[in-house]
Amino acid sequence: MSSILTNNSAMVALQTLKGINQNLAKSQSEISTGKSVGSAKDNAAVWAISKVMESDVKGFKGISDSLALGDSTTTVARQASETITDLLTDIKGKIVAAQESNVDRAKIQADISALRDQISSIVGAAQFNGLNLLDGTDDVSILSSLDRQSNGLVSAGHITIQRQDMSTTAGVYGTGTSLNANATASAAAVANTGNTAVVTFNGSGADYSAAAATISVAGVDLTFTGAASQTETDAASYFAGAINALGLDGITASSSGAGLTVTSTRAFETADVTISNLVGNAGGTVITSLNGTGSLSLATGDIAERAENVAFSSSAAVQAGDGYKVTIGAASYSYIAGKGETMEDVAKGLKTAIDSGGVSGITSQVAYDTANAQWQLKVDNNGTSVAFSVVGNAGGEASGGLFGLDSINVTTNAGAKAALTNIETMIGSSIDAAAEFGSAQGRIETQSNFISNLSDSMRAGIGSLVDADMEEASARLQALQVQQQLGVQSLSIANQAPQSILSLFR
Fold first, then answer.
1. Helix (H, G, I), strand (E, B), or coil: what is residue 35?
2. Do residues 392 and 323 make contact, with C-beta atoms less than 8 angstroms apart?
3. For 378-429, what is each residue's pLDDT tens digit?
4. In principle, which of 27, 253, 294, 494 could form an S-S bond with 240, CB 3.0–4.6 Å?
5. What is the CATH number of the domain that holds 331?
6. Comparing C-alpha atoms, which of 321, 384, 322, 388 is closest to residue 354?
């Protein structure tokens, strides 16, 4: 049936042409924008994913800037620490030269002071954008990543850099929790008296004419060979004179009847006494005891070092701000630990504090007691006996990593000797600081490279979701243009169909 009111062919042709035009418009949009999903109406799910990823890429750009800033700051700190290490090494060379008495120590001290001032200048100038990693103890966090969880929550990741305080500040002793249980003094006073070993010879007027014995003191052998009418008193007297004649530093001997007393005033050093090569007489064994240990044919004894000590706990942890104070006579010396330090650092810090005090006759040393697995601070006194004690408190402000540098004084023998051990501690601190910054810088660079690669990967992923396939779009555009032309012609033909009805009315 033909109708002039309804043209079904034209409607079909029109709908087809509309569809072709819509597809053509979409293809043209893809070609002009380069995106197959340009808005949420194109593909809501894909568009939403792409926008989330685009926001993350934008965030990673900010993270890259943060890492670049952190890398620059850490580089400045590392280079400063390395320079400080070199300067401390130069100071060590000066201190070694000062160990020789036939030098101008005043000029050496002037050189040391100049190097010390240069170190202080470097510490003050080692900043980037106002942030100095060589001053203070607070950690510094650098934004390093954005961590997106499966539930959509986002958290920021950080790289933490520990500041390495290279200042010479003494710190502030705290008033917090008592730490007295972590440090124990070996005595209530530091005396200047020597320690002894006693050798007792056998007999009461016995004939020593056939006797012979060798006593070794501090590695030197002395031999007594009995003569006619000699007794145990003569043996003791002979050894006393022979030991004193050696002129051993800090070693003296005396005799009283059959007893020989060997005394050592050596600080931080034991002295051995060994008995050997015994030849008896008609009365029996020549030597009967060493330090009262009984009848011996061969005996060895050590004269203990002249020094008192502070023994530090082998199990207690050291927290930042933990302070320990040693009192020697009327003077007190303290050290306050920083982050990551140990009892070894505390002992060395207290030694530096004591040496910085420059009290005449007082010397100190740090040693590890293997038997008890604990660090010790040893203190010797070559003057008048003085009181000795140690206390500890938490809650202080840490001493600087180069604490004691500003008090190095090589103009005296004692000062030069103390400076030699203390400078090693300071060099160790600066090396540790440079190593810490170097490790942090390496981590920052690795993270920066990862963020760069991750951003590129995410951009590629976003592109695979929303970017148009230009080859496909071009081919589709040409096909749709042909379809559009055919559709227009089809619609034109369909619109002409009602005109044939006119022939029916002629």
1. strand
2. yes
3. 999 988 889 999 999 999 999 999 999 999 999 888 889 889 989 999 999 9
4. 253
5. 2.60.40
6. 388
Residue type, 248: L
Closest to 305 measured CA to CA, from 186, 442, 450, 158: 186
**Which structure tokens are listed for 228?**
């006619």
**417: in domain:** no
Angle at 476 between CA 472 and CA 482, to 5 degrees: 155
User: Which is nearest to 364 in space by CA: 347, 344, 345?
Assistant: 347
* Measured distance CA(333)–CA(326) in Å, rounded: 5
In the chain, how many domains are there? 4
- Cβ-based burial of 4 (10 A; exposed 0-12, middle 13-18, buried ≥19): exposed
As given in the structure block, the two tokens for residue 64 are: 């890259």
Last residue of a domain, one of 303, 322, 343: 303
Nearest CA among 173, 197, 171 for reference residue 263: 197
Question: How many residues can be counted in the chain?
Answer: 506
Do 52 and 130 sit in the same domain of this protein?
Answer: yes
Residue 87, pLDDT above cutoff 60: yes
Q: Which domain holds residue 389?
A: 180-191+308-399
Handedness of CA 130, 135, 138, 140 (dihedral sign): positive
Could you report the per-residue pLDDT of 293-348, keeping only the tens digit for each? Answer: 544 444 567 788 889 999 999 999 999 999 999 999 999 999 999 988 999 999 99
**Same domain, residue pair 64 and 155:** yes
Q: Do 253 and 205 have their domain in common?
A: yes
Reported pTM: 0.76
List the alpha helices (DSSP H) in 150-275: 232-246
**Cα end-to-end distance, the chain, whole Å:** 19
Backbone angles phi, psi at 383, to 5 degrees: -125, -145
Question: Is 253 exposed, middle or buried (CB count within 10 Å of its CB: 0-12, 13-18, 19+)?
Answer: buried
If asked whether residues 275 and 131 sit together in one domain, one would say no
Q: Where are the alpha helices (DSSP H) in 206-334?
A: 232-246
- In one letter, which amino acid is 362? I
Say if 410 falls within a structural domain.
Answer: no
Residue 286 confidence (pLDDT): 55
